[in-house]
Design goal:
single chain, about 110 residues, mainly alpha, 3 helices, elongated
Length: about 110
């Protein structure tokens, strides 16, 4: 079932998508600019323990997940998955409603 989009709907969706892409690049820029500072602070305060690695790896994983979401690469939780899940829930609710009304002729 394909939805007909008006020009305004398509513009709104495109605008939303551009905002998501811009936010990803902002996130990536902050990551690239802040991590050298984190590394320098680590070497200045406690060079015997390299804790900056955990910061870079943890934040890096968040960047990767953010990029996968923005650029629609995840194998699950995408629009197709959402539509399928919505249909499953609606069918389940309809079935339950029919079963509950089955014996009651006044409803």
């Amino acid at each position: 079932m394909e939805k007909d989009f008006t020009e305004a709907d398509r513009y709104y969706d495109a605008q939303k998508r551009v905002k998501e892409i811009r936010e990803f690049y902002e996130h990536l820029t902050v990551y690239v600019l802040c991590n050298p500072i984190v590394i320098v602070v680590n070497y200045m305060t406690s060079p015997e323990y390299l804790w900056w690695i955990w910061s870079v790896m943890g934040w890096g994983m968040a960047i990767i997940l953010h990029g996968l979401k923005v650029f629609s690469f995840p194998p699950f939780f995408n629009k197709k998955w959402e539509q399928k899940k919505i249909q499953e829930i609606l069918e389940k609710e309809n079935k339950q409603r029919l079963e509950s009304n089955h014996g009651n002729k006044f409803e």
